[in-house]
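Protein: 2-phosphoxylose phosphatase 1
Species: Panagrellus redivivus
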Amino acid sequence: MKRNRILLVVALVLIYWWFFTGNDDSSLNKAYAPAIFIYFCQYLEELVIGNEAKVPKADYKLKGLAIAFRHGERSPLIENGVLPDCTAYHDVDRRSFSDYESLTEQVEFTQFLQVDPYFKKVELAPQRSKCSIGNLTAEGALQLVKLGDFLRTQYVESGVLDASTVVDFQVSPYRRTFQSAVAFASSFFFPLRQLYPEIILQAAKTTYFCNEDNCTCPQIEGLRKVFHQDFQERSAIYIRRYPDLSTELQAFAKASKMAPFKHPLEFIDVVLGQYACRRQPLPCFEGKCISTEGIAEASEAVSSLVREVFSLSKPLRTLYAVESYPILNSVANTIAEIRKDRTSKRVNIFSGHDITLMPLEFTLGLNITAFPPPYASRLVFEVYEKTDQTTSDVDWLFLRVLYNGVDHTTNLSFCKTFVDGLCPANAFEKFARSEMLPTFSGEASVSAICEREKRSNI
Ligand SMILES: *[C@@H]1O[C@H](CO)[C@@H](O)[C@H](O)[C@H]1NC(C)=O
Ligand SMILES: *[C@@H]1O[C@H](CO)[C@@H](O)[C@H](O)[C@H]1NC(C)=O
Ligand SMILES: *[C@@H]1O[C@H](CO)[C@@H](O)[C@H](O)[C@H]1NC(C)=O
Ligand SMILES: *[C@@H]1O[C@H](CO)[C@@H](O)[C@H](O)[C@H]1NC(C)=O
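Structure follows.
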């Protein structure tokens, strides 16, 4: 059975570190946390750092900005025993959350924040202490408050945030992305309410921000299923690389009493959302405890599996191309807008998921090695105008791309020349409009992909 195969992979990963690490370091209730958890959990005591808005020279002006972020910490998506308490861990964060809750109840804030009718029934802030499957935690909301605050201070002097700037804030249709968007808006836009008397949170239709009929079709869901099949086949190949361990797999899977995972990433998800990020002791089975080193290895194994499947699975590449298209297209639209009217400025915010960021990371060719993207991860597109152009310049608009504060511009797959470390915007427009879909899907448009998939299903 296919599900069994997936379980085998998960179990394999578990077994692998169980045997090869043998460390009983299961308590996280100490002053420091292991690097892997600091990375994945984004604990609130860690500072947000990043090079957003940091361009090498003063003669670049920021005209366009797109920020796609993952929601903050949430409980696991799958049921696995009793969930821990979700109260913020540190006193200072409990107080911050109380302050945040009060803010969301203020009339000034609720008038400032215009909410799409789709979200009308959703509370602005998550529960203070109750964990529930797939829901944002109090710390998760605070992560986005912290991120919005950091990015506002980075961008406030950049020139892109003024009263004429067109702001478009889209939110994927989930409670956790909505509450994350509210948190981000409270610290990024609300302090600038003199410039922006109101911010509208619009509900997107999909996790990849396709809101029109021309960027998706029912066949795309079919692609997702094919990808899962491919993934399972690749998982089988993956298992064969560890032949010595295969006999132990079934036994361990049974002992671990984990819910059946549909995808190895779900294992990581449970370990983080239920234990590591809640600072709970890691679980033990028959005297053997999950170790932090083990989780690091599991994450590494999962990451290399994802990378391998992307290079081998055409359905996944096609799916990722389709899912990258709306955000890339919107950045290209921003660039086109500025070309038409030099004075225009745009800010696009996308409140999404790890599965929003991952397709973009792959299609842009960023060298990201750790998956999934941690909570509150951000992918940022900055569009700059060069103010002292010379006739030899390849373009007068430039793109800069950052992931979690790290400048990845020089690794953009489609960019062959760079000016002051920036990518000429016309290279990006060409990629986004006419190269990306053919390169990864073999078709020129989403509708052609849909036609192909229809034919292949007959
Ligand atoms: C998430 O939280 C809301 C209330 O904040 C609750 O209505 C909903 O049932 C929760 N989701 C789950 C899966 O428990
Ligand atoms: C899809 O339609 C929207 C609205 O009509 C338009 O802005 C967008 O550029 C279209 N996208 C494609 C790929 O044609
Ligand atoms: C990707 O990044 C890793 C470190 O994160 C580095 O070791 C590796 O050389 C990089 N590879 C490429 C092709 O840039
Ligand atoms: C970009 O690629 C180079 C190698 O081509 C690598 O050394 C560098 O680490 C990459 N940058 C990032 C941010 O991964």
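Remarks: The longest strand covers residues 60-70.
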